[in-house]
Design brief:
Elements lengths: L15 H14 L3 H14 L27 H13 L3 H21 L25 H22 L3 H22 L11 H9 L6 H16 L12 H10 L3 H9 L6 H6 L35 H7 L3 E3 L6 E4 L9 E8 L2 E10 L2 E7 L4 E7 L7 E3 L2 E2 L11 E2 L14 E2 L3 E6 L13 E7 L21 E5 L24 E5 L1
Parallel strand pairs: 2-6, 10-12
Antiparallel strand pairs: 1-2, 3-4, 4-5, 5-11, 6-12, 7-8, 7-11, 9-10, 13-14
Helix pairs in contact: 1-3, 1-12, 2-3, 2-4, 3-4, 3-5, 4-5, 5-6, 7-8, 7-9, 9-10
Length: about 500
Amino acid sequence: MRPTDTPARDERLGWTGDISLFAPTANYLVDTRAFLSHWMADVRNSQYANGDLPAVVPTPQGQFGDSGVGWSDVMITVPYQVWRSYDDTRILRENYPAMQKFFQFVRTSAGPDLLEPGRTTFFTNDWLHLDDPTEQAILGTAYYAEYARMMAEMAKALGDDAAAADYSRLSADIRDAFTKAYVAADGTVKRNSQTGYALALGMDLVPDPALAEKVGRKFVAKPALTDYHLRTGFIDTPLLLPALSKIGRDDLAYKMLLHKDYPSWGYEVANGATTMWERWNSIMPNGDFGPVDMNPFNHYAYGAVGDWMFQNIGGLSAIEPGYKRSRIAPVPGGNLTEGSGTLRTVYGRLSSKWSAHDGAVDLKVRVPVNTVAEVHVPTKTRWAVTESGRPTTTPRVCGSSGWTTGPPCSKSDRGPTASASTPSSAASAKPRKQPESCATSWRAWTLRARRRQTKRPGRSRPPSRPLGPPTWRAVRRAPTSTWTGPWRGWTTSETGPLSRLTRER
């Protein structure tokens, strides 16, 4: 088994770059653990003595043996993304020696100045970009810094604290070297490409906040030259919208996502596409086709934008590996009036559903038991947030669940935090005049979901359950009613007394 690039031409090969970039999105769509763990065994077996990898795994009769930035780094990125999604350290243990070997190869390539030249091959630059080239060493150094960050997190997860500290220090040093070498005092990233700016901001490569703000202004000015149409290729497209969101320009991220003219995702749909194209210019506006030897209309790499969509439209992301601690933070925008996201985590179903109407945003969330979720509501003041029709700033207890207020309104990006023991709830935010406000655009609190079990008549203890037990779904109409039997989560409707319990799979 291998992650095939496209079934639409005679290659059907396991290109490493495609899955390296798409893995975060793939992990939202399906459980990739068995598939990618199996394929990573082939990757390890294909590793060269110097630590590098071929561009294709398995390698067909020695072809495509050369690789480059964005491709061979699959040795680190895929195990990291699988671990982040499922908190399964087995894939880390199996690949850790090979990851260390590859990282040492990159470290040797960079040298003492910490500037990685990019290991130039035929993959030079941001593959299939649209006439917006990037300094090759910017790509190499940016990914070198990310490798070090990922290695630090994985080493810590495996208990290799000394290596984790070394990788962490190195990552910080590489970021300093990147800034000194490639970022001007006015915020211009060398070569002034969309890719360069998105890498610098999306990967947090500019440690100085004041300079990062200048880089952000330059970044916004760059796509403005093309009416906010993208020019990025394989390597940077997954980072383009996240980088805009990181600097608070979700409006521009939505604008770039929802374009319907060339080049854009919507342009492909407008031209009858039902699957992603390999090239932005597979069909030009005048009807001309791209190169026939490499122009399939079923190629998943640019679908990596799904990661941003899941996190911002669906509002779901992991704070800790496996979603032990998650963030629910939908970002209404782009004239969307509603959105939702559902993810089957290793703990159970995590979901959000929001709608915007009459100046208010309603948000319903579902949190698996034994996990914690930070819920962020789009409002400028905590006084505008209600839960079950009551202000969240008023402490209350209803049965076994309730909100407890957090600290006073702060100037942080994510606002105050409170905790609740209910695994599911509904919240709304509507602008209204209040005695307190702050400059932030999000308010946040925490939902804590805990398993509760009580004795049943005639039983000494609750019956044991196999993996993946059914869910008790409580349609809860008044916050004073609680369900005390075995359960995994609640969904709620907050308009009347307790009406029914529904058991669901």
